[in-house]
Specification:
Glucose Permease (Domain IIA); eight-stranded antiparallel β-sheet; alpha+beta; 438 residues; binds zinc ion; 8 helices; rod-shaped; 55% helix
């Protein structure tokens, strides 16, 4: 046995030396003798119990703290998660909202485009109808030729462009319009631009819509330009007859036509999100078309042709001349054409037969009312083929050439009265030729 274990043994036997425990009951003293071994065993049992209690207590105390810590961690995690969930919900709502906004934007863009398209289609169709009428008149007048029946050498029946002398201001106007359209597009895009996964698709859509808008604006501008040029040409033609075009197409008449069609045909206040500039230009183009329609209708009723479309000779002019019968100086209120006996005498514009019969000096005569104060007179005919009240179109036969009345030979005496005053018919025939042939 080592020195150490000997020492331990001595310490133990000193600590747990044999003890007697006395106790008295009913006057008798008892004692219990406790050996060292018993004491050690007892100490061991008591010590173990104490240790267990200590361990259990510590465990209980710290477990509480562990649970508290775990709960705190869990709450932090829970808070973080719910915050993320809320963020995700907000992001989802944002995307949803953006989608919804885009959908609405797309729908409204489509509505805008188709509304503008319909408007343009109507305008183009209306313009085409007017052009067709102008073309018809041009072909008729071209076929009739000049006072002597001479036709243009090149046979070109296209209206000459009187306005092409000033191309620069016209081109600059188109370029101004192009700039305006571009500005309109950029302001529209700025408000809508937003980054996102669908941004490219959105940009493509916006670009396509913007391009279409630009094309529509250009089409509008070209309609307005062409109509304006035609108006200028027709006005110039009317002026060259010696009768002011304003006497035939009064501003009141034009505004009445515009009013009859609802005036400025779109209430700008009623258009939501549609470029106002488009409708401003559309209104201007529409007003130009209205004016063109008015002037075309007026021109259709102006006697611009010859009373004979067959081979003929221009024999006598308008104004003061020596009378062919008595030789005295007198005023000739019309012009004379000679041609083969019974050649068809034809209306020089559309109108209504006002008089068909005999008149002193004129012989067998037809008078046609063309409206706007114009009346044409066809005299010395051998036969009349229309009745009063009958509607006639350009170049409709009204009678046959002859020598009735105060006449020296077969010819037609042709007069134009504007507001009851005779005007020179030759100026009208030349005006028609000048404009409709080149
Ligand atoms: Zn005459």
């Amino acid at each position: 046995m080592s020195r150490r274990s000997g020492k331990f043994k001595r310490m133990m036997s000193r600590l747990f030396k044999e003890r007697q425990i006395y106790h008295r009951s009913d006057g008798v003293v008892h004692f219990i003798s406790m050996s060292t071994k018993t004491q050690i065993a007892l100490a061991f049992v008591v010590g173990s119990a104490l240790l267990w209690i200590a361990y259990a207590s510590v465990n209980v105390v710290f477990k509480e703290q562990i649970i508290v810590a775990k709960e705190r961690d869990f709450r932090v995690m829970e808070t973080t998660l719910s915050k993320r969930l809320v963020d995700a919900q907000i992001a989802y709502d944002d995307v949803n909202m953006l989608n919804h906004v885009r959908e609405e934007q797309f729908d409204s863009t489509m509505v805008d485009i188709s509304a503008r398209h319909q408007l343009l289609v109507n305008m183009v169709e209306r313009k085409a109808a007017i052009d067709q009428s102008i073309d018809l008149l041009a072909k008729g007048l071209s076929a009739a030729g000049g006072p002597n029946g001479l036709k243009a050498k090149n046979g070109n029946r296209v209206m000459i462009d009187i306005a092409h002398g000033e191309p620069t201001p016209r081109q600059s106007r188109i370029s101004i319009l192009r700039k305006e359209a571009a500005a309109e597009i950029s302001t529209k895009n700025h408000t809508a631009s937003r980054e996102g996964p669908a941004a490219n698709a959105v940009r493509t859509m916006d670009k396509a819509a913007a391009d279409l808008f630009m094309e529509q604006m250009m089409l509008l501008a070209s309609i307005e330009e062409k109509a304006t040029t035609q108006i200028e040409t027709l006005k110039m033609m009317l002026e060259s007859t010696g009768v002011s075009s304003s006497a035939l197409i009064t501003p009141a008449k034009i505004s009445n036509i515009a009013l009859a069609q609802g005036g400025p045909f779109i209430e700008i206040a009623n258009i939501d999100g549609t470029p106002i500039r488009f409708f401003q230009h559309a209104n201007r183009a529409s007003i130009a078309i209205d004016e063109l329609a008015a002037i075309q209708a007026a021109v259709d009723h102006v006697p611009l042709s010859s009373p004979l479309i067959v081979s003929r000779r221009y024999t006598s002019g308008f104004g003061v001349r020596r009378d062919p019968i008595n030789g005295r100086r007198s005023s000739h209120h019309g012009i004379d054409f000679a041609a083969a006996w019974a050649s068809p005498v034809t209306s020089t514009a559309m109108g209504v037969v006002k008089f068909a019969g005999r008149r002193s000096g004129f012989g067998k005569v037809v008078e046609i009312d063309h409206g706007n104060g114009f009346i044409t007179r066809y005299a010395h005919m051998s036969r009349i083929t229309v009745r009063a009240g009958q509607k006639v179109a350009l170049h409709d036969k009204v009678g046959e050439l002859g020598s009735s009345g105060r006449s020296t030979g077969p010819h037609v005496h042709y007069e134009i009265l504007f507001k009851k005053r005779p005007v020179n018919p030759r100026r009208f025939i030349e005006a028609g030729r000048y404009v409709f042939e080149s």
